Request: fold
Amino acid sequence: MGHAKKHIVISGAGEVGRYIAEVLLTDGHDITIIDNNMATLKDFSNKVEVRAVYGSSCHANVLANAQVDECDVLIAATSFDEINLLTGAIGRKLGAHKVIARVRQKTFYSNKMMDYQDILSLDALICPDELTARAILSKLCGPGVIALQRFASNTIEVRQFLVKHNSSAAGSQLRDLKLPPGVRITTIRRADGPVEMANADAVINNQDLVTLIGPAKTLPQVKSIFQKHKTPHRDIVLVGATPIAEWLLAEIDHRIFSVRLFEKDISKAEDFATRFPKITVLNSDPVDPHIFEEEHIGECLAYIAVDNNEEHNILGSVQAKKLGVGQTFAVVQNSNYLNSLAGIGIDRPISPKIEGAKELIRMIDDAAVKQTAAIEGVAFVYETTARHQGDAVGQALQDISVPKGAFVAAVQRGGRVFAPKKEDSIEAGDKLIIIGPKAIEKPLKKLFVR
Reply:
C-alpha cells in the first residue's frame, strides 16, 4: 500500500488471518495476532515476524495484552461470527482506532431490523459470501461495474451497448449524441479490437461496444440510441442454492442475463424458485451427462458452481469447459487449490476466504484517493471524500478543471447517491466516484482533499 506504518491486531490465526498478516508484513506494518490455539500460534510466529498473543479475543484482558488500545486497526477474522462481533465491540471500547469484523451469516451483515455494525460501533463488516458473488460478477460484467454498483447501492449503473448499423449513434460524434442528464460514455471498444477512453470528438461506428455510466432509472432509455432491436439474454448456469447464490441473484442484472439454477435438494430448489421468480430452477444435477446434454449447458455464456461441495464444483466446471461453456467459475474453500485449478480447465477458481482477506486489506488502506477498479482496462475508478481544504470544494462541476478525460460519475451525500449534473456543486463530506485515466491521484487529491 505504501502508506504510513501501522500497528494492526488480527484476531484469528487461521487461513484468513495468516494471509492478511503476511500481506501486511510486506508493507512494513507491525502485526500482532491473537489465537486460542497455541500450536497454531507458535507455528506461524516461527515463520514470520509477528507478535503472538495466546487466548480468546472475546476476553478484554487478552485484547489489552495485544495492546488494542494503541492499535491503528483491529481485524476480527476468526471462523465464528459471534466471536468476531464481540471482539470488535470490546476492541472499540478499549480504544482501537479502526475496527473491522468478518461475518458469514447474512443476518449479521444485512438485517433491516438490526444494524449490528452501528449498534456495536464497528467501522465495517465484511461478508466473504457477498464478496465472492461480487468477484464472480466483476468477471462477467467488469470490475468497474461492480465497484460502482457497490458504492451507489445500484442507483448508478454501468452498462454496455453494442452499436448497430441502423441506430442513430452509428457514424455520429460523441458530442452530438442526445444523452440524458447524468449519463456519460466512459470507453469505446472498437469493432477491430482496441479500446479507447471516450472524448467529445470520437466517432462511434457500427459494432463498437460503448460503456456508459449514469442513473439506473435512465440508462434503459439510452438503449434505443445504440440498438434498434431487442438483444437476446445471455444464458448462465448457476449450481447450488447457497448463500453465495443468493447474493449473486440479488446483484445480477436480470435484464441482461438469463439464469438457470440447478439444485439437487428439492426443498432448497423450491425455496429458491419461490424467492427468485426471475430465474429457472431445476431440481437436478448438471454434472449428470444426460442433464448436461438435455439442457444444452455447453451453449451457455458461463457455468458458475457455488455448491457447498467444492469437489462437485470442480468436477462440474471441468466438464462444462470441455463441452464448450464460455467461462467457468468454481468456488473452493481450500485456497491451496487456486493455483492448480486454472490448469485443468477452470477459468475462475474463487476462494471466499481469500476474497474476504483481500477486502480486509483494502479497507486498511486509508489513502485520500483510492483507485478501486478499471473499466475495459483504460478508464479507472477512483474514490475519495471531499474536504473543506480541496480547491474544488464549493464550486460547480462546470467550473472545476479536472484532469483531461476525467469526470465525477457519482456523489454520495448523506443517504442519497446521484449522478451529478454540470451545475451541481461539490460539498465537503461528499463521497465521490471519479472516472478517469490512470495515475491521477495527485491532481484529484489537490482538487477535493488537499
User: Anything to note?
Assistant: The chain has a mean pLDDT of 89. DSSP finds 16 helices and 23 strands in the chain. The radius of gyration is 24 Å. The first strand starts at residue 7 and ends at 11.
